[in-house]
Amino acid sequence: MSYKKDILTDCQWNVISHFFDYYKNRKGRKCHQFRPIINSIIFVLKNSTKWDMIPNTPDFAPRSTAHRWLTKLEQDGILKHIQIELLKTAYKNKKN
After folding, report:
1. How many Cα atoms within 13 Å fall on the side-chain side of residue 26?
2. Interior CA angle at 34 toward 27 and 6, to 5°?
3. pLDDT tens profile 24-61
4. Is the pTM of this model over 0.90?
């Protein structure tokens, strides 16, 4: 099954990648790659599915990692900013 529609494009990733700079520079637990984490979160939210339905491919993060980061991004207010930036990009692309 193809999951390409559930994966961020390079353009979308470039728009939001700067939100993760803060987390990359912190001490402590080793940081995962954020693009697969965001792909996993989008997959679950977009498809209204369970966390254990996330595809087991390199484009997606493990469900526990994705769920933990969804909670963290919501608490830190970052998820809202990511949504706004992606919506602005989609609107801009639709106008052109």
Report:
1. 9
2. 165
3. 777 766 667 899 999 999 999 989 999 999 999 999 99
4. no
CB atoms within 10 A of CB 37: 23
Give Cα 81 distance to the centre of its chain.
12
Helix, coil or strand: residue 26: coil
Q: Which two tokens stand for residue 59?
A: 């484009």
CA distances 63 to 19, 37, 53, 70, Å, are 21, 9, 8, 10
Is residue 29 within 8 Å of residue 92, measured between CB atoms?
Answer: no
Which of 96, 91, 92, 4 has the alpha carbon at shortest distance from 42? 4
| Eight-state DSSP code of residue 51 | G
Local structure of 33: helix, strand or coil:
coil
The backbone torsions φ and ψ at residue 77, rounded to the nearest 5 degrees and listed phi first, read: 80, 5
CA distance 52 to 41: 12
